[in-house]
Amino acid sequence: MLAASAFPTFDEPLSAELSALGTCAFEPVVHPENDYAALLAFHGIEPDRLVLIDPHNSTSASSNGQLFADISDTLAADGWQIAIIGDACESESTGAVLGAMQSGALYLAGAMTSEVRAALIGNARLILSERVEGSAVARIAGERGTPLISIDRVIFRGRAETIVGAALAELHTQGAAHPGLPFTLHTPMLKDAA
User: Fold this and answer.
1) Mean pLDDT score of the chain, rounded to an integer?
2) Distance (Å, rounded) from C-alpha 91 to C-alpha 108?
3) Cβ atoms < 10 Å from Cβ of 90
4) Spatial separation of the C-alpha atoms in residues 105 and 186, rounded to whole Å
């Protein structure tokens, strides 16, 4: 039998020593390429059929939030995987879209580093965004060659069919993109996260 002293223990002196040094020996190292792979695996994301929805603070639950939700529901029913992105400070607008949707979608707003978000945008099939002028999403999409459809709330008010038609036309011209079975939410288990 092995002696208990053969295994390191986490006791008060060790904790006090680490605190005095001002460091934590267990702080994770950030690797954007590994973080992106972990995001894909954890949420069951399939980049070949991923459509990103990018609403902003000017979206209200009653107008563009519902418009984005209607578009997302139609695309999801066609087999495209929908993910809602945005900054953490835009939870009202991103939450309004998710709350108005009838189908499942991934809610990734505020849940990624900028490097991981850039990788997600670069590998998505299409982005639908309310704000394009000067936005980081539009810049990254342009750099990575990801198609982006800007939704102007004045032009498209109540005309979800027009936007869906444009989105489907763009998606179906891409050889690498393909819809699948209607998307269902993947509920990660603890063993999936390991």
Assistant:
1) 75
2) 10
3) 20
4) 10
Helix H or strand E segment including 74: helix 64-77
d(CA 179, CA 92): 29
- Cβ pair 123, 39 in contact under 8 A: no
CA distance 124 to 51: 6
* Residue the block writes with tokens 């139609």: 74
| Residue 123 pLDDT | 93
Lowest mean pLDDT among 18-22, 61-65, 162-166, 175-179: 18-22
* Cβ-based neighbours of 127, under 8 Å, separated by 6 or more: 51, 52, 53, 54, 121, 137, 141, 146, 147, 148, 149
Q: What is this structure's pTM?
A: 0.71
Read off the tokens for 181.
């079975």
Please tell me the predicted confidence (pLDDT) of residue 140: 92
What's the chain's length in residues?
Answer: 194
**CA angle 184–77–167, rounded 5-degree value:** 120
Predicted pLDDT of residue 14: 46
Query: What are the structural domains of the chain?
Result: 39-180 (3.40.50.2000)
Do 128 and 59 form a contact (C-beta atoms < 8 A)?
A: no
pLDDT digit string (tens) for 21-61?
A: 554 444 444 455 578 888 898 888 999 999 999 987 654 44
Residue type, 81: Q
